[in-house]
Amino acid sequence: MNVVVCVKQIPDPADPGALDPGTKTLKRDVKLILDESDTYGVEMALQLVDKAGEGSVHLVSMAPNNERSGLATALAMGAASATLISDPALLGSDALTTAKLLAAAIGERDGVDLVISGSESSDGYTGTVPTQIAAVLDLPSITAAKAITVDGGQVQIQRQTNAGYDDVTCSLPCVVSVTAGVVEPRYPSFKGIMAAKSKPVDERTAADLGFDAGQVGWAGAGQEIVDIAAAPARSAGEVVEDDGESYTKVIEFLENLKVI
Amino acid sequence: MDFTPNPDHEAIAEAVDRVCAQYDDTYWMEKDDKHEFPWEFYKSMAEGGWLGIVIPEEYGGGGQGITEGAIVLNRIAASGAGMNGCTALHLTMFGLNPVVKFGNDQLKDTFLPRAAAGDLHVAFGVTEPDAGTDTSRITTRAVEDGMGGWIVSGRKIWTSKALESEVVLLLVRTDGEPGQGFGGLTLFLADLNRDYCDIRPIPKVGRNAVASCEVFYDEMPVDGWRMVGERGKGFHHILHGLNPERILLANVACGIGEAAIRRAVNYANERSVFGRLIGANQAISHPLAQAHMQLKAAMQMAALAAWRYDNGLECGEQANTAKYLAAEASYFAADQALQTHGGLGYASEYHVERYWREARLQRIAPVSQEMTCNFIAQNVLGLPRSY
Ligand SMILES: Cc1cc2nc3c(=O)[nH]c(=O)nc-3n(C[C@H](O)[C@H](O)[C@H](O)COP(=O)(O)OP(=O)(O)OC[C@H]3O[C@@H](n4cnc5c(N)ncnc54)[C@H](O)[C@@H]3O)c2cc1C
Questions:
Q1: Residue segments in chain B with a per-residue pLDDT below the cut of 50
Q2: Mutation to probe ligand 1, out of B32, B137, B368, B386 (largest number of atoms < 8 A from CB)
Q3: Are strands A32-34 and A9-11 parallel, antiparallel or unpaired?
């Protein structure tokens, strides 16, 4: 069972991020870390490979400045190897270009049974890349998986819906995006961290993957960020002075929200 | 001089931070309050392989230096786990250093792999009620049983974690009389065999998740192969581990100080009195800034000491200096954090009182500030020995 997991390396959400007014994108020249929402995919993949008793987990990540810190975390969790797509020409790439590049890196590999990704990144939130990868690779796509079981050449998935979940069966290979919280991601162990240092990370540029400069980055982007604006400050809450009867106001408030 | 951040060290710190984040201040407050050993935390650390990181690789450990061991303890302490978290596992991580350096093969093969896996609880029995800091006066005695083994009788005080420990590194007198120098002292890695020893926790100020105990040894048999190193060289074997011990403790102390400052800063940024945040008063902010600077300086000295130790250089001056500075900085930080919280600082639920009780300990144990000054005065400055 060979699983490829797409992982994104993002600025640490604990540090206040900043938008670059010039490019209108998030400044990503700081140290990047593994997007927490991708740790679920990595954990899911490790469990599937473990259960299958053979195969390995390979990571694919596109990041500026040859950033590897986040990959190191996923390798320390137990992934076997990684492809890192990094190239100054990629600055400004939109979601579709990103998906094409990731798909090209996945396509380089033989015998891939399953591609897993998070549902959406915690810094970009487009939520479109997993399906786009599937389309580029011409593979079935299943989103919002909360449980994955592999059985022979098929995969059974519980797909999260508003009402509950759908049971979906799909042939392999396919692309599955997982929701956060589906599994408990393991913590990198000391030995995992040390072993990660000698795991292979292959670097790829846009050209290595068959793209020329005009197809990627700002030049190749099919979308344009027209404007950015600060999120409106949170407005002050309503203060209810307790005159002994204030609970009625609380009930009224909750009723209006339709939570009771 | 190269201060480039080391990615391995960053990864170790981040990973330990993550494990510790599962055990918040409320967990530690409860463990401290109920005098319960933090088994859940201990198991998480053992599973991650963190307890074996300084044990040599040939015994299943991580083969890392004191530098890396210190990072682990510093991050545990800084998480808010403080001494409760560190003492729970410190001796499994580092206590067997005399065995690594001087132990026979049977001792190493039997115990080091288990310590590396986190599956061996170790205590350290040196201090005695009537000897105090003057270890040459210890009276707990081991006599030969005539069959290659030993019989131990006597009384130790403050043996931390004795209740949970399977083995104790025990310094005893095999020869000579108390006060006649260190030549008669021998080190054993003995089983804490409850048939022959009585263990009584000592009620104490803080770090109450891990008991420190009085241990009475009543003709306890110890096999000959459990002797660590040579007969009569026990004190020497322990001395060897003192510098790394000081470096580790300096890191623990600084971790507690960091936790205290973190809470104090959060509180000072939230609490408003006289229509202004208390953190806007320099009487509050300056001592916190001073505490921060003192902690940073102590950490630098500890890093230097660790680097020297790991590179085989003499480090007595640096290790003692680091331990002294860290103990002062940590206590100052915890005290100031308590002050910053006003009356609530005295309430358990704000946690700084727990840090404060723990930080106080560093100025006494494992070595007092006075004895550290004695070391520097004599051995570094060349002043006459005063005692
Ligand atoms: C919570 C806790 C846990 C401990 N855990 C362990 C453990 O696991 N194993 C273990 O073996 N021990 C342990 N100890 C013991 C600890 O190492 C000793 O308490 C410490 O070394 C001080 O020794 P003492 O208590 O006998 O003080 P004393 O030697 O009686 O000293 C009393 C005071 O006099 C000062 N003093 C003594 N001589 C001089 C001098 N010449 N010059 C200046 N000042 C001097 C000391 O600095 C100190 O302030 C622990 C202690 C505590 C409190």
A1: none
A2: B368
A3: antiparallel
